[in-house]
Design a protein that fits this description.
It holds the Pfam family AAA_31. This is Partitioning protein para. Helices cover 35% and strands 16% of the residues. By secondary structure, the chain is α/β, with parallel strands linked by helices. Strands 5-6-4-7-3-8-9-10 form an 8-stranded mixed β-sheet, with helices on both faces.
Length: 317
């Protein structure tokens, strides 16, 4: 049966797309280990990605929620760089911007409406919740990158939080799981609140990836609050939901970062733990409205997310 693809139509608006290349194998990728090292003397300790023996790479198609209730944890960077790593591997990827802040993915990532589409017909994520006639297909738009598609949102998305239209909790799940399209991975960039929008994303998702600033105890507290929300969602609406990964954002080698990483590896023993090394060019990339992978492809942060995508979705398959 042919797919009624929202994205096949979108490709017609992407006549000048850029194919994202894979990275060279000789770059300075982090090592991969099976557990977080807390026993080696600090001067001899090496930063590494943890892939526990119990971790299972994701099957496709897959829906991933990128969540932490703490603002500034690196959710948007994590979402975009994972997406770019996946499209470089030939995957079809859709990003859903579920963050109503001004400084969200919709402000960073360039996307294009179909040529000739009137302004009044340019729908976004808010319309999906409030208009029964709008589908995910209607609000999925092209980007400059081959294989990457985008669902935008704007500050009025907060109306979903305040008004909570009927079916808010299960709407995304229905649209993502019951409608037929050819997306391999959908990444949902959640906002900094554990409200109805984040709950809707968690009900829809197969997996959660939690970004945590490597030197922020407050981010760790935010992850603890998210744990409680995930437990509630699993109990009531989505029993298969799992925490697949933790990303230590803005990672620099320090005693505190090592302690935080060790604590999170212990808290989530079946999840991949990825140190995403700090790079000062991320802000420049945002101003240029480019993913860091395009702006500075050899940045260590890019390498870490590239390796994370390999582990989370393809390694061992």
């Amino acid at each position: 049966m042919p797919h009624p693809l929202p994205l096949r139509a979108m490709r017609e608006t992407q006549t000048e797309t850029v194919q994202v290349p894979r990275l060279s194998d000789d770059l300075a990728f982090l090592d991969i280990v099976t557990e977080w090292d807390m026993s080696t003397a600090y001067q001899d300790w090496k930063t590494a990605i943890v892939v526990p023996p119990t971790f299972l790479p994701a099957s496709l198609p897959r829906i991933i929620a990128i969540c932490n209730q703490k603002g500034g944890a690196g959710k948007t960077v994590t979402t975009l760089e994972l997406a770019m790593a996946l499209v470089a591997r030939g995957r079809r990827v859709r990003i859903i911007d579920a963050d109503p802040q001004h400084a969200s993915m919709s402000a960073w990532l360039q996307f294009s409406y179909p040529e000739g589409l009137p302004a009044e017909d340019r729908k976004n994520l808010k319309d999906l919740y409030f208009d029964d006639d709008v589908t995910l297909r209607d609000i999925t738009y092209g980007t400059p990158y081959e294989g990457l598609y985008f669902v935008p949102s704007f500050p009025d998305l907060t109306d979903v939080e305040s008004k909570q239209p009927t079916g808010t909790d299960t709407l995304l799940r229905f649209q993502l799981r019951e409608k037929n399209d050819d997306v391999d991975v959908t990444l949902i960039d959640c906002g900094p609140r554990l409200g109805p929008l984040t709950a809707s994303a968690l009900v829809a998702a197969h997996d959660v990836i939690i970004p945590v600033q490597a030197a922020s105890g407050l981010d760790v507290m935010g992850a603890a609050a998210l744990d409680r929300t995930i437990a509630t969602v699993k109990k009531r609406l989505n029993p298969e939901l799992r925490i697949a990964g933790v990303v230590l954002t803005d990672f620099t080698r320090s005693t505190l970062a090592r302690k935080i990483g060790g604590g999170l590896a212990k808290r989530y023993p079946d999840a991949v733990v990825v140190p995403a090394r700090q790079n000062v060019r991320i802000g420049d990339a945002q101003l240029a409205r480019q993913p860091l992978r395009i702006f500075e492809s050899a940045a260590t942060t890019v390498l870490d997310y590239d390796r994370a995508a390999d582990i989370l979705f393809t390694r061992g398959r």
